[in-house]
Structures are given as C-alpha cells and as structure tokens.
Design a protein that fits this description.
It comes from Azonexus hydrophilus. With about 475 residues, the chain is α+β, with helices and mostly antiparallel strands. Among the domains are: about 110 residues, PAS domain (Beta-Lactamase, 2-Layer Sandwich), CATH 3.30.450.20; about 70 residues, no CATH class; about 160 residues, Reverse transcriptase/Diguanylate cyclase domain (Alpha-Beta Plaits), CATH 3.30.70.270. It has 13 helices and 16 strands. The radius of gyration is 53 Å and the shape is rod-shaped. The chain binds guanosine-5'-triphosphate. The site of guanosine-5'-triphosphate (GTP) has 16 residues, from β12, α10 and α11.
C-alpha cells in the first residue's frame, strides 16, 4: 500500500533550513572577517608602523646623533686646527689624535682631509691624497663647497676594506673662519641594517631610508638592490608630496596589493625613514581564518541538514502513519480513505476500470464484548483486520469504517469478482480463531458488495453495499450479497 499523503514537503523544509544556516554562518563569518580586517588595519596604521618607525628612529639617534656631536667637537678642536695652521708637520701627532678619537668613541674610522695639502689623514697615518678627478674623492669637494656645517654620507670606506660606512663629514675653519679641511668619523651601517632586517623578517615590513631626493640610502638586505621608489608607479605618483610633507601616513597600490606607508623625517640626518607594510600580506592570516571558518560552516551546515533530513524523514513517516491509520487495527482510517479514493477515481477517469466495494461487519460483536470483555473484543477486531488485510493485493486497501465495520476497496474487480472474494473472506473468518488465547471464541462476517458506477459518488456506491449488507443481516448473517447495479 502506498503512503496516502504527505503532511509537509520535507525537501523544501530541508532546503530552507540549509539556506538559513548557510546564510547565517556566511553572514557572521564575513562580519567577523571584516571586523578583524578593520582592527588589523587600524592597528597597523595607528600603532605598528608608527611604533616601528619610532623604535628605529631612536636606535638611529643612538647610533648616529652622537657621532655628529663627536665630529662637531673634532671640527672645533683647537689642537687639530693649530696643527694644520702650523703646517701639518708632525704626522704622528695627527694620527695619534685621530686614533684616540676612534678608540674612545668606538668609531669605525676617523679622518681629516687638509684643504691645503689634499692629504687624507686617518688614525694609521696618511691614507692618500684626494684628487678632484677621482670619483671616490668627490665627497670631499662636495663638502668643501657646501653651505651646511656637515653632511652625512653613506659610502664604501677605503680605509676599511670598502665596508659600507656612514660618514659624518664636518667642515673645519681656522680662527678667522677660513675653510681649512674636513673631519669626522665613520661608522658601519650594519647595526642599523640588522635592526631593519629584524623588523622586516619579524613583521614582514619593508624598511629603508631615503635622502631628500627620494633615493634609498640604507636598505635592510645588502644582498638585494635597494628599491627604486620612482619605479613603483603607485608610490612614485606621491613621492614628491611625501618628501615635501616629511612625516605622515600614506597608502598606495603596488603589484595589485595595497601598501600602507609611514614616513618620518629625521632632521639630524636629513633622511626619511620609510616603513612599509603590504596590507594583503598582513591580512593573509585573517583571510586564511576566513576560509577555514567558511569550510567549517559549510561542513556544519551539511551535517545539520543531513541529520535533520534523516530525523524529519523518520518523524514525518511516523506522523503520516499515525494520521492515516487506525491505532487498534493498523488499517487505514476514514480520513486516509477520503484521500485515496480521490486519487483512485482520478486514475479511474484517465484509465477506466471496475472498482468494487466490500462492506464487512462482524456479526453479534456486542455479545463478544459483553461476554469476554472489551480487551478480547479488541483482540478479535485486530485479528479479523489482519486476516482481511492479508488477502489484499497491492492496489487494494482496507479501511476501518466503523466500530466493527470494515470497508475493502478493490480496484480492477467487478462486482461478481468482489462477491467471490467476499465469500472467500467470509469462510476464512468463519474458520479462524480470532482470539488465540480462547479458541472457543469464533466469529463470522456479513458482506455487502457493490460495484462502483461512474454516475454515482463513492458514498452512494458504499450506501448500496450497506443496503446489501443490511439484507444479509436481516436474513441470518454470515453471508454475502451483491447490491443490484445502479439504475
Ligand atoms: N472492543 C471493542 N468494541 C467496539 C469497538 N468499537 C465498537 N465496539 C462495539 O461493537 C459493538 C457493535 O454492536 P452492534 O452495533 O449492536 O452490532 P453487533 O453486536 O455486531 O450486531 P450485528 O451487527 O447486528 O451483528 C458495540 O457494542 C460497540 O461498543 C472497539 O474498538 N473495540
């Protein structure tokens, strides 16, 4: 027997549940992602980049500002100036002086270049003569002609195996303010570089110093070419503005990624400190979390939907069974009959075939109840129902029509065939022991049979069967009768 009807459309409900769950998960996951993204972005702009910048700045101050002061002291040193003015005679005196400055201040090198003789003195003595046509000496002639008191210059140091060195080149004047040479100390940029490299690897930031023209002068990785800022279109477009503003926060696009940039001007060095963070790299972690969360949400949605599908299916079939069957006998109830007969008549209209109704009633059932009690009566009802049901074909259906009354619907059967089946059933019930605990209890059935006529309603056909049944009851019961065809 097929299920008579569906209370709810399970597929639609599951689809709706899955949709609601996935929308809910998707919305909360995305919301979380955007909140985290904004928080990270604000932290980078408001704290991380400025903090990195100020840490490096203070380290630079520690490393560079002191040498500027030392170089200034050297430029104003009376001994140094007197020694030049006296004619640069005792080279040993000068080299001792420079060696002492170098050792005392832990400098990488110390020097003096005389304007008069062109000699380049170091702590070790005379290094060389500077010459205007020698590119490596260009710095001296630049310092000689410049307006400022000093400059900071990053160059390979000839006196120290060409190690990259920051020189503080201070102009020296005699007591009448005539230019007499340049002095100062040099220090390695390695400590600054180490610091920059550390920040770069720890926080994936790009850090470098530029001069006033935007040329990179110190860069974290000595093995790589320093970045050419004007070759990066996003940055190049704002570079002059950045250098003019000196300090600020900027952002630009490079290689498809958004870059956040903090710039600080270091007046002591006349350099700019650039601290750059690739926003997309910084957000890689939250993006990864987003994907993981979405995958988990999807999995949870699938599991919940699947479990709901199974559970709903189970309950739905239980509810359907409860709503359509008689609790005591397990036969269909009248409500289910209404739905099934409509379906049957619809198919009958498409494909006409005979339909026969068998209305069966237990004879003297009241006496069984009265004599053996209602429990035994129930048992008789249940067993007679089982017997009736066991004889049905797949297309037939049995309904508990009243208290001890049953309706059998036999599609494809004529009234005469129905009469034969009724007789077979009558005999089977008569032979049966409907109460196994008490074999003495026997019962019989009376049948009224009618063949459905297209001109009538099912109720009218059943009424005709009822009249035939009544006739059997009147003539002694335990019999079958075919209702005359509808006139
Ligand atoms: N045990 C039990 N009895 C029921 C149930 N439903 C109806 N009955 C009883 O069935 C009896 C039917 O009695 P009647 O209508 O007089 O019919 P009958 O005793 O079978 O007599 P005839 O039909 O004339 O042969 C009533 O006493 C009802 O109370 C039920 O579910 N269980």
């Amino acid at each position: 027997m097929s299920r008579p009807f569906r209370i709810i459309d399970r597929r639609s409900l599951i689809l709706l549940l899955g949709l609601l769950l996935s929308c809910g998960f998707f919305a909360t996951t995305l919301f979380g992602y955007f909140v985290s993204k904004e928080a990270i972005r604000s932290a980078i702009i408001g704290q991380d980049l400025p903090l990195t910048s100020s840490n490096i700045y203070s380290e630079i101050q520690k490393d560079l500002v002191r040498p500027v002061l030392i170089s200034s002291t050297m430029a104003h040193d009376t001994f140094l100036r007197d020694w030049i003015l006296r004619g640069e005679n005792e080279v040993g005196e000068m080299s001792r002086y420079l060696a002492e400055v170098k050792v005392r201040h832990k400098a990488f090198s110390s020097f003096f270049v005389s304007e008069k003789s062109g000699i380049y003195y170091t702590g070790e003595g005379v290094l060389k003569h500077v010459a205007e046509n020698e590119p490596r000496d260009a710095w001296y002639f630049r310092v000689r002609d410049m307006q400022e008191e000093y400059e900071i210059n990053v160059d390979p140091d000839l006196a120290n195996s060409d190690a990259l060195t920051i020189f503080i080149n201070y102009r020296v004047f005699d007591f009448d303010h005539n230019y007499i040479g340049a002095t100062g100390i040099g220090l390695t940029v390695d400590s600054v570089r180490r610091l920059i490299r550390d920040y770069q690897t720890r926080f994936k930031r790009t850090i470098y110093f530029t001069d006033a023209s935007g040329k990179v002068v110190v860069f974290g990785d000595p093995t790589k070419q320093p970045p050419e800022l004007r070759a990066r279109p996003g940055l190049a477009a704002q570079l002059d503005h950045i250098l003019k503003e000196r300090t600020g926060f900027y952002q630009f696009k490079d290689g498809g990624d958004n870059h956040l940039l903090n710039v600080n001007y270091l007046p002591e060095l006349q350099w700019y400190l650039f601290v750059e963070q690739n926003e997309d790299v910084a957000l890689a972690g939250v993006r990864q979390t987003l994907y993981v969360n979405l995958a988990i949400s999807l999995l949870v949605t699938l599991i919940v939907t699947f479990l709901s599908y199974l559970t709903l299916g189970h309950y739905q079939s239980r509810i359907e069974t409860m709503a359509s069957t008689d609790k005591l006998t397990g036969l269909l109830n009248r409500h289910a009959f209404g739905i099934l007969i409509d379906k049957l008549l619809a198919s009958h209209r498409r494909n006409p075939q005979p339909i026969t109704f068998l209305l069966a009633d237990i004879d003297h059932f009241k006496q069984i109840n009265d004599r053996y009690g209602h429990r035994t009566g129930d048992q008789v009802l249940t067993n007679v129902s089982s017997l009736l049901r066991s004889t049905l074909r797949a297309a037939d259906f049995a309904v508990r029509w009243g208290g001890e009354e049953f309706l059998l619907v036999l599609p494809g059967c004529t009234g005469d065939e129905g009469l034969l089946i009724a007789e077979k059933l009558r005999l089977a019930v008569q032979e049966s022991t409907p109460c196994p605990e008490n074999a003495a209890i026997r019962t019989t059935l009376s049948f009224g049979v009618s063949q459905y006529d297209d001109r009538e309603t099912p109720d009218q056909a059943i009424s005709r069967a009822d009249e035939a049944l009544y006739a059997v009851k009147q003539t002694g019961r335990n019999g079958v009768s075919l209702a005359p065809a509808k006139t």
